[in-house]
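As a warm-up, study this chain.
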Amino acid sequence: MSDPIRDTLDRILEEDLDLALTDVTRESLLIEDLGLDSVSFAIGVVAIEERLGVQLTDREMSEAASVGDLEDLIRSKADGVTR
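Now compare it with the structure written out below.
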């Protein structure tokens, strides 16, 4: 069964942030493992807002250490938005 949030997040990571999905797991750390910087975070936030209709604050993004944390954050904000 397809998971629209995970599928969209994967597309953002791959297409917008130029990451190889073979290197990405829920446990992958956004900064340490994937090498995201402030520009990457800004690109990611805009893509998440545009594609998923979810607004994330700078503080929320800074507290999301891993891909799994980011996915969980998106899910908590998208509850009711994407369903």
